[in-house]
Amino acid sequence: MNALLLPTGGRVVVGGYDTAEESFVWEIRRMAGMVFQNPDNQLVSAVVEDDVAFGPENLGLPREEIRARVKASLEAMGMYEHRKMAPHLLSGGQKQRVAIAGVVAMKPDIVIFDEPTAMLDPEGRGEVIGIAKQLHREGITVLLITHFMEETVDSDRVVILDGGRVAMDGAPAEVYRQTEAIRALGLRLPFAVEVAAALRARGLPLGEDILREDELLDGLGQCLLK
Amino acid sequence: MSIEVNHLTHTYNPGLAYETTAVDDVSFTVARGEFVCIVGHTGSGKSTLVQHLNGLLKPTSGTVVVDGVDVTGKDTAVIEVRKKIGMVFQYPEYQLFEETVYKDVAFGPTNLGLSEAEIDERVREAMALVDLDYDTFAQRSPFELSGGQKRRAAIAGVLAMRPSVLILDEPTAGLDPRSHDDVLDLVCGIRAQTGCTILLVSHNMEDVAGLADRVFVMNEGRLVRDGTPLEVFADGDYLRGIGLALPQARAFAERLAESGVSIDAKRILTREALVDAIAGVAGDTGGAGITGMGGDPS
Q: pTM score > 0.90 for this model?
């Protein structure tokens, strides 16, 4: 989706630009930023703020504009106070936030997160997911690739891939209603969905649209605290 | 084989500005055959601790005694320790290096100077333990395997040494849910078949609650809790204070109990236990058509 790979067949169009068209590649990459899994493999500079400036510098922006963008994106990621540090001294979650700041400094319309939390501890995971949600609130299109089903329940849409094909595509509540099909794909269900499904099987009258712990708690309150 | 750790302290960069004490006066004993999970916030000293157990790191002070042998002693042959203690590092598949799975798994036994027949036997045994079919995979390049298969091949290389203690440092990090479950099933299978002692470092409290006989909690280099999962997870406020979570089922059970539902959250660690407890309450309160838990509404 940012022209790192090109299709053998079919077309990918990002913001109106066909990724196969070589002259669009740089505009597509500015528009669709990417955050990868391993925080150690995507930071290139010895100082945090230089790393964030790397993308804007390549756009050939004026110095003042680069400075302003680096400051704004580091502040947005809560990493401005660490701007003079060496990236290797940061925690995994902090490194990912610097990587995201580098993407945000390009003023993208789309941010693609490729398993950004796979190598992080639970705290780091929370930091990164919080930022993905923040970018979304600011109007950026967010694509999140993840193995952690809990991270999907607040999305607008869940797409499940299997063997290179789209197996399911819909709102979380629609997709997670198909509990057996999801298990058959080798995936887990989000915690509240799984517990609610097991309890429905035992006869509890819980609604089928429970996705989050709060909803499960409400549903159980109605069943058990009459 | 028992492991005794006495007043173990490890200081990185002693005397320099970056001096940090990663392990601080830790003592414990692990008996043969125990399944111990080690948890702790990033930087709490878990990995530094386990690297002392097979002699990869030497303590700044204190001793590590494995099966009566002081592995921290200057004269101890490290090879003897490594034969007994197998270590699976984080992302072990990055350590695969040979042309074929067979050669990779055979690397350790070959270094022990075993005969070809013995090496062959061990490779077959180790591949069977990790559920990699010998005829399908032995002559394949390890780099052609899927992520989960690579990880199993790497674990086979450790098992080929026939260790009596297996240490795994976050063995499921970065795996999809199915491969995650496969690797943990594998660890349980290895334990059932070989009787070896398991030390598993994990961030996943669900796994810890389901697997461990005993849980060690590390914080700022110290061993701050040592007990069964029920004992250790009893103190949720303390664990949250040092940046750890409760198993999700327990945390939810606590919220449910607070909301007025009469379930005993202190006994719940897994999703199965949570579902049983809630179904039990529903049965007791006379919910229509509740099956399973026998709570007769009359």
A: no
